[in-house]
Design goal:
It is a single chain. The chain is mainly alpha-helical. The protein has ten helices and two strands, in the order H-H-H-H-H-H-E-E-H-H-H-H. It has a two-stranded antiparallel ribbon with strand order 1-2.
């Protein structure tokens, strides 16, 4: 995997801005309210919520455990707030944040065809229509099965075409 210098430089600039004053922003994802009150269940909930949004899919148990371990390792030498910011940075630096991977699952046919999962379909749809990640409503439609029902994709495309990200991406 090769990332060009311009992309890497832009990524560094964006991460620096995001994490510079991150305490208040990251606290939004903490069910315990602040970095000073982080418990094991709180950091697991943070990693799950923040990671799901960053990766545009649910994290699996191994991924959650990995990022919880990042937090626990860092908090031994730094403040909980610094450990939280470092955990968020690790998630934001993951290739799953930067690259889309709609791989699908085997559809059971002998032809080797694959079918996108509902969340993969939501991601592909969102990027195709708005040039951005799926919004909350599209994620909910994917998770509930509404997106894959007859008319589900058309309903979401029409809704997305009425949003500001659509207008901004095509003007």
């Amino acid at each position: 995997l090769n990332i060009n210098g311009t992309y890497a430089s832009t990524l560094e600039s964006v991460l620096t801005k995001i994490l510079k004053n991150s305490d208040a922003e990251l606290a939004k994802y903490l069910p315990c309210g602040s970095a000073d009150k982080i418990t094991d269940s709180c950091i697991i909930a943070f990693v799950t919520s923040f990671g799901d949004k960053a990766f545009r899919r649910p994290l699996d148990a191994v991924e959650v455990a990995r990022y919880v371990q990042v937090y626990n390792s860092i908090k031994t030498n730094f403040t909980p707030s610094e450990a939280l910011a470092s955990t968020a940075e690790a998630i934001l630096r993951s290739p799953y944040t930067h690259f889309r991977s709609e791989l699908g699952v085997a559809d059971g046919s002998d032809k080797g065809s694959v079918k996108l999962s509902a969340l993969e379909l939501a991601t592909a749809l969102a990027f195709s229509v708005t040039n951005s990640s799926p919004d909350v409503e599209l994620i909910k439609a994917a998770e509930s099965g509404a997106l894959t029902m007859p008319g589900g994709i058309e309903t979401q495309v029409r809704r997305l075409m009425a949003t500001e990200p659509f207008v901004l991406s095509y003007t």
